[in-house]
Write a structure and sequence with these properties.
Layout lengths: L5 H25 L9 H19 L5 H24 L1 H7 L4 E5 L2 E2 L1 H6 L4 H10 L8 E6 L5 E5 L17
Antiparallel strand pairs: 1-2, 1-3, 3-4
């Protein structure tokens, strides 16, 4: 349990360094978006990369080359899906959650909150964290595609162009 052999420890050290460097190179090649976690799909890829790295490190049944190919496959698929989502609206809708307006002009949308399992307390907390003490000071609260909640002050709505497709009158 505490120690098997020095060769196992040496394997973890050598394969660990090689796998870590490979992952860094592959992430650099695949681009900045790879770990940005814009949506649930990106989060799943990030978790899968961590799991794959752990498997490469700790499972002697998986060779370094097999692990590196698995990492490259995950990152390659993530890049392909990101490109496809960029150019295909139907695929974007299938893979990426759409943002949802939870508050408009100081009024909570209870049905949107229920549909996305967001409580009044969650919304109020986001409003407070945004530096607002009065719901009337809030122009919009949006549940973003990545699960974060954005708060826009009533005086900062401007022309509302960042809310395209979300406003109730559209």
């Amino acid at each position: 349990m505490w120690f098997d052999t020095w060769s196992d420890v040496l394997r973890v050290l050598l394969v660990g360094v090689a796998a870590y460097l490979s992952l860094l190179v592959l992430i650099r090649i695949s681009g900045k978006r790879t770990l940005a976690q814009f949506n649930a799909f990106d989060l799943v890829v990030t978790v899968a990369l961590g799991s794959t790295l752990a498997t490469i490190l700790l499972t002697s049944d998986v060779s370094f080359v097999e692990g590196a190919v698995a990492l490259a496959l995950l990152l390659g698929l993530q890049v392909l899906i990101a490109l496809a989502v960029t150019f295909s609206r139907p695929l974007r809708r299938a893979i990426t959650a759409q943002p949802t307006l939870l508050v408009w002009e100081g009024r909570l949308d209870a049905s949107a909150m229920r549909a996305h399992r967001v409580s009044r307390g969650d919304v109020l907390q986001a409003i407070r964290q945004g530096g607002h003490g009065d719901l009337a000071d809030v122009g919009a609260v949006i549940l973003e595609s990545n699960g974060r909640i954005s708060v826009i002050a009533a005086g900062a709505i401007g022309d509302g162009s960042s809310l395209e497709g979300l406003l109730p009158h559209e």
